[in-house]
Amino acid sequence: MRYADDCNIYVRSEQAGQRVMESVKRFISKRLKLKVNEQKSAVARPQVRKFLGFSFSAGPVIRRTIAAKAIERFADRIRDITRQGRSMSLEQTLSVLAPYLRGWRGYFGFCETPNVLIQLTGWVRRRLRAALWRQWKTRRRRRAMLIKLGVRGALAHSTASSSRGPWHIAHTKALSIALSKDYFRSHGFPSLFAQC
Questions:
Q1: CA-closest candidate to residue 192, choices 120, 91, 125
Q2: pTM of the model
């Protein structure tokens, strides 16, 4: 059994926040006979606090955002999956990655900052491009794969001959053509935002 034991209360001023905090603590400890976790409890600006993976943006227009720690956890999980993808086919990688992305989108798609979702989707695609580039290994195979996937000869040759690392190559024009958004979509890659 799980309990909803976390909550945020929003008021207009810090003074009002302190007053409400004391009142709530008194109610919880004396009326409900429960212990208040002092380390997790605080009066602070909404932008400083996180709640169930969400926070709020600063500025005149307040928006619901994804908390920084939630994004860090997402990035760590994606790194784990795509690191394994160096030795697995794209289909095998996506069989692990796609459910995770769909679940994450189902939960955090509720945010009001779609640019974050768009940037994260692009970053995941770049990780996949870098993993595939590593798999192709030799210049000859890289050139052949680029041509097969629609990159013209001269661009395919110069990209395949590059001494730059996979992360840099993953951001080049050649890989954006060969391993396009449509390419990944056709293999079952779910974006975190509908329009990216």
A1: 120
A2: 0.83
